[in-house]
């Protein structure tokens, strides 16, 4: 056989996949598998999933909604921890069916709401406000837009996650929240003090130390709640009907 020069032999050259990159792929696949499993369990065991987010007032809104549902069936209230690492864990560990789950959701950083939005069935979403409470995570130089735009984009993930037959409750007093209506597949209901709100607070009265009082339009009902700042109290109370 003729000798073959080493110089004439060609080898296909492919860069080896770094071990850390392969490790990340494996972890990502496992995480997605957990999300799919969690979503399957949630759909089987949860009657109605209600999620609340906002830069201000989400905890108050969760308490109000929970109070109103207390006599309507079995209820599970999920407040803290409320970030991406813990949003799915209670659903994955759930063993018994429940009629209502009211869950507080934090959008503390870009992508924080994504695991919940792509995994769970969200029947009702409430977005109270968009603010600058997470300045470090939403620096304009990091996200390529203004801080408020970045926060609105992240919290809007929750509004977009609601299915066609669900309901999204948006604050009519916050233009960044009201602007999420275009991302919604479900029915949109607005609340606030603005004239355009579907549920509007008028005749707001605060006589310290008495509780706040206002008229709810169009149902013309009075709601009395905690003696704190009128606008904040009204918005959170209005988000509960």
The total count of strands amounts to: 9
Structural class by sheet pairing and helices: alpha/beta
What does the main sheet amount to?
Answer: 9 strands, mixed
Reading off the top of the CATH hierarchy, the class is best stated as Alpha Beta
> Strand order within the widest sheet?
2-3-1-4-5-6-7-8-9
Explain this structure to me?
The chain is of the alpha/beta class and 241 residues long. The protein has a single domain, classed as 3-Layer(aba) Sandwich (UDP-N-acetylmuramoyl-L-alanine:D-glutamate ligase), CATH 3.40.1190. Helix content is 34%, strand content 24%. The protein has eight helices and nine strands. A nine-stranded mixed beta sheet has the order 2-3-1-4-5-6-7-8-9. Helix 3 links the parallel strand 2 and strand 3. The longest helix has 27 residues. The radius of gyration is 24 Å and the shape is globular. The N terminus is likely disordered.
Compile the SSE list and pairings.
Blueprint lengths: L18 H27 E8 L4 H12 L5 E4 L10 H4 L5 E7 L9 H6 L2 E6 L12 H4 L3 H15 E10 L3 H4 L8 E6 L6 E7 L6 E6 L3 E5 L4 H9 L3
Parallel strand pairs: 1-3, 1-4, 2-3, 4-5, 5-6, 6-7
Antiparallel strand pairs: 7-8, 8-9
């Amino acid at each position: 056989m003729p000798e073959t020069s080493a110089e004439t032999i060609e080898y296909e050259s492919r860069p080896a996949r770094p071990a850390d990159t392969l490790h990340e792929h494996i972890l990502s696949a496992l995480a997605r598998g957990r999300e799919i499993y969690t979503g399957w369990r949630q759909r089987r065991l949860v009657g109605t999933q209600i999620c609340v987010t906002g830069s201000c007032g989400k905890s108050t809104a969760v308490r109000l909604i929970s109070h109103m549902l207390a006599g309507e069936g079995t209820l599970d209230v999920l407040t803290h921890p409320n970030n991406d690492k813990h949003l799915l864990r209670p659903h994955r560990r759930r063993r018994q069916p429940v009629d209502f789950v009211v869950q507080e959701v934090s959008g503390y950083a870009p992508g924080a709401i994504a695991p919940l939005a792509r995994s769970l069935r969200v029947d009702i979403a409430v977005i109270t406000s968009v603010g600058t409470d997470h300045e470090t995570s939403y620096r304009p130089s990091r996200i390529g837009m203004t801080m408020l735009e970045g926060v609105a984009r992240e919290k809007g993930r929750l509004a977009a996650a609601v299915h066609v037959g669900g309901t999204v409750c948006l604050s009519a007093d916050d233009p960044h929240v009201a602007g999420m209506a275009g991302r919604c597949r479900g029915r949109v209901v607005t609340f606030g003090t603005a004239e355009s709100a579907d549920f509007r607070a008028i005749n707001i009265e605060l006589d310290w130390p008495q509780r706040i009082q206002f008229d709810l339009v169009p149902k013309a009902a009075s709601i009395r709640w905690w003696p704190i700042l009128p606008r904040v109290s009204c918005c959170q109370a209005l988000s509960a009907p």
